[in-house]
Amino acid sequence: MGFTVLDYVVLIAYLALSATVGTFLGRGQRNLEDYFLAGKNVPWWAISFSIVATETSTLTFIGAPAIAYSGDLTFLQVVIGYFFGRLLVSFILIPGYFRGNLQTAYEVLDSRFGASVRNLSALLFQVTRALSDGVRLFATALVLSVVTDLSDIWTVALIGTATIIYTFFGGMKAVIWNDVAQLFIYVTGALLAFFIALQGVPGGWSEVVVVASAAGKFRLLDFTLSLHVAYTFWAGLLGGAFLTFATHGTDQMMVQRYLACGNSRGSQIALIVSGVFVFLQFLLFLLMGVILFTFYQHFPLAQEPDQVDRIFPIFIVEQMPPGISGLIIAAIFAAAMSTLSSSLNSLASSSVNDFYKTYLAQNATDAHYLRASRVATLFWGFLLIAMAMLARNWGELLQAGLTITSVTMGSVLGVFLLGTWTAHTGQRAALAGMISGLLITLGIHFSGAVAWTWYVLIGTTTTFLVGGLFPSCGKAQNRTQVNVE
Predict the structure, then answer these.
(1) In terms of CATH, what superfamily is 5-398?
(2) CA 206/CA 227 separation, integer angstroms
(3) Does the structure show a pLDDT above 80 at 346?
(4) What's the rounded Cα separation, in Å, for the pair 460 and 246?
(5) Could you say which of 25, 115, 134, 190 has the lowest number of CB atoms within 10 Å?
(6) Is-contact 369 227, C-beta < 8 A?
(7) pLDDT, position 290
(8) Worst-scoring range by mean pLDDT, 30-34, 308-312, 335-339?
(9) Could you give the CA distance from residue 267 to residue 43 in angstroms, rounded to a whole number?
(10) What is the pTM of this model?
């Protein structure tokens, strides 16, 4: 059918409305707490929806169907691990973030180990977010390039610029409330695509069951005892749990949301409830991939796409009725904008609070810090555009984004656990543990010896053991242990 004028109108209207709402909600910002933490008075349910929207990027929207289209449902084993990871974050790490007036997650490490550990952790967060969200930006550009036939370079620039403008003016309040709206938009779009695709299969769901079952598409559990297979029960449960333990427990993008809630109890409820939504979402997107597989068995493509991630965008453009295509593409944009705007805001927050205020402008005015925050937002926005250009040749997008995160976050989680569970570990030991965990994980990644789902567990364990056993580490030099009891 192609992308019609009506589809463009729907898409442009959505983008204009998001920018307008973001700018409106960003009015009246006076200081860093307003810009980065939305005044610390956001209700828990909005935080929960925002968490879901933030971690549901375009990688999920187009990457999850691609995984099921070319494979099966075993990725859900990782999502089950995600839920258990949320429980660990809720009861081990979140209470510690509400002891003191914190702006970033890494201030906890400063009070326990000193500035060097805080700086390294913040730097790893920034590198991880820049690389992984560069992949997410490229994934969205990939969708737009399929729709418009523009090159992905132009679409990366277009989407990146739109997101920078929206985040620059909106601040955290606009990010969260737009997340809430965007959640409903992209879930509606996904459900529409699901039922339209299902109706397009001759015989409907019964035919999907027959064809997909014969191809092994409904396989859910894999109890293979192999570290080389990414989606096994053991890798999913342990790897998924530790990945979420790290990303949702130590990543500034998520910790900002807990702080914006203003209290520990509300943050815990928000995070646990979000786990149920995320499981249902991944189930929906993976089943979408199974339906697409069945559909294209009946109506084969003239040529298989060079990237399997293009399969869902191709279906949207070629098979959706006019207007509906625009709505679903807007839904994909909603998923992308919620993640990218959150990333920009958290990167700017870490840059200003962890580095700029500490080393360059310790006693400036609130107005000065607010201007610096917006400059930092611009800087990270343009850097993400550059990273997206590099992501063009990084392979299957969902796995690429998760792999980048998994390589670095084990070290960060390990040092948080050292601060939580040990009293004797000092700054040198913590740094030795972090560097060891990062190097070991990088070595394993480049050797190809272990699937990416094990990276966070390996990095966390290495960091914790080396940091805890590091010789001549001395005592913690009268610094406060991170108490989360």
Answers:
(1) Sodium/glucose cotransporter (1.20.1730.10)
(2) 36
(3) yes
(4) 9
(5) 115
(6) no
(7) 96
(8) 335-339
(9) 9
(10) 0.84
